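Example record

The entry below shows one chain as it appears in the dataset: sequence first, then structure tokens.
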Amino acid sequence: MKIAFISPRGTERNQQNNVLYEVYKKLIPVLSFMIDDIEFIPNLGLLQVAAMVGDEHEVRYIDEDYIDIRDSEPVIFDETFDIVALSACNNQAFRAYEIADRFRKRGVTVVIGGYHPSALPEEAKEHADAVFIGEGEDTFPQFIEDYQKGDFKSFYVSSGNVDLTKLPAPRFDCIGNILRFNKLPVFATRGCPRNCEYCSVKVIYGPKYRKKKVEQVVREIEDIKKYYPRPYPFITFGDENLLVDKEWSKELVKALIPLKIRWECYCDVSVAWDDELLDLLRESNCVELLIGFETVIKENMRMGDMWKYKMVDKYAEAIERIQSKGVGVMGLFIFGFDNDYPDVFRETARFIHDTNLFDVDFAVLCPIPGTDTFYRFKDRGRIITHDWNKYTWLHVNYQPMHMTPNQLQEGLLYMFKEFSSIEFLRKRRKYFKGIYERLAGVSP
């Protein structure tokens, strides 16, 4: 049996309806931005589910985000498959449905999962023979068994408690040209103890925090190194909040030191007050920690996670403590919360300049289906559009509380322009050069 695992292109990656297109055009001459800040990462969710398929079946991985639009049609549709498995976030949904419809017309069995189908399974079922809700590792093998019996179900609902220690390594061997990617994804944990209103993670994984064995993660990275011919692969941990369990985290990071990789992960600011862990991060060649600060306006966090609410006043100290150890902090910020006024952009810009963040990324609040934010906005009539192509975290698709949609959109563009400038890049390099020289014992 031949199974295709397809990640459809999203509206953001291929510049379709992309509000940042003009910004990107102006940044093409800035080589540092184009190389350092544009990520090319395969779909780890599909590669992991593909690993649940027995060796007797042929597996094909297709990532449309990294295929020229002019070539995608023959790459996807000229091959014959028994089953096509699609995964879709919101801005991939319409393209996923298009691919699904075309295969089903040819008599191919099509299944679909991911964030969007998990939140809106009835919508997804209109385009697929079966819909996977939640995690796929415990349900996809059951589907394959049912399919071979000729009697599979329309919906497969995960238990939400997959034992990570029993998972096989993702199928990096079926990627094809792995060099098209500049970062290779790994995950070691699932779940997050925080309870952010806008987060879609709990829709898939729930609140329970689960961990793989450290030696399991090491084996997966060693597997990647076998397939990736460059000497030092860049590993990006896709975990929602990797470093929550500090003792386990230290064990993991110690095990990464001899692997000679460069790596990054998402975590929260609690790491800033564990000096031992920070020293280990630097020693293991952790390049940066991606931290969701979300906002510098403390009141915005009252409707979200109260732990984060208490942390807002400590953000500047946390950044200084982490970066003084030679580990960069990428600050992730969201605009459009209910306590955001038009001056929030300049306030946030001032905070970034004052704290010398290693890197930054910005988004507008997105009411992702399945989240508390989506249902709250929907109940109050604040959703402007259900065009999933515009659920990118770049488009404004709801009515903000204290500004117009256009003001919010223009504010986002202002932030990208402000922090994609040559001046900011030079300032960042000069600041971190001083830190690295100090840590190396070199007089600046």
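Notes for this example: The radius of gyration is 22 Å. Confidence is low (pLDDT under 50) at residues 30-36.
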